[in-house]
Amino acid sequence: MLTLATPALLFPAISLLLLAYTNRYLALASIIRGLYDDYQQSPSDNILQQIGNLRRRIALIKWMQSMGVGSLFLCVVAMFMIYTGWPQAAQLTFGISLLLLISSLGMSLLELRMSTDALNILLSDLVAAEKARKQSPP
């Protein structure tokens, strides 16, 4: 049987998750602003590609946040339904809330992978440039 305490357990977890998503969003927004300024100074296809990748990541974060907020909202609705004596509807609502949370976490993993792939590309470019510098005659 679902009690008020069960959906309430997710409140701190979802709140921290939303804070982490917001921090990611703010970090990416700062990077995009910097790349935009760089592009204004010296246009480059590389910068445009980076901005495109960041745009996709920002869209993912938007969906991650939406799913997280939806999960929190449905947790509150489930608690209200338990409180007002609708246990079956509360169980269904809480189950949907959990599915939204799972979706949000899955998108978070996808965004993390995109971030890691982008960093690995930058690192491989750096390693290639360093090798080329060492091989060129002084």
Structural features, described:
- With 138 residues, the protein is mainly alpha-helical.
- It is built from four helices and no strands.
- The protein has helices at residues 5-8, 10-41, 45-84, 87-135.
- The longest helix has 49 residues, at 87-135.
- 21% of the residues are buried.
Helix/strand order, N-terminal first: HHHH
**C-alpha geometry:** elongated
Major sheet: none
Total strands: the figure is 0
Per DSSP, the total helix count is 4
In the predicted model, the low-confidence regions spanning at least 5 consecutive residues are none
Amount of helix: over 70%
- Our measurement of the CA-to-CA distance between the termini, rounded to an integer number of angstroms, reads 76 Å
Class of secondary structure makeup: mainly alpha
Strand and helix layout:
Blueprint: H1 5-8, H2 10-41, H3 45-84, H4 87-135
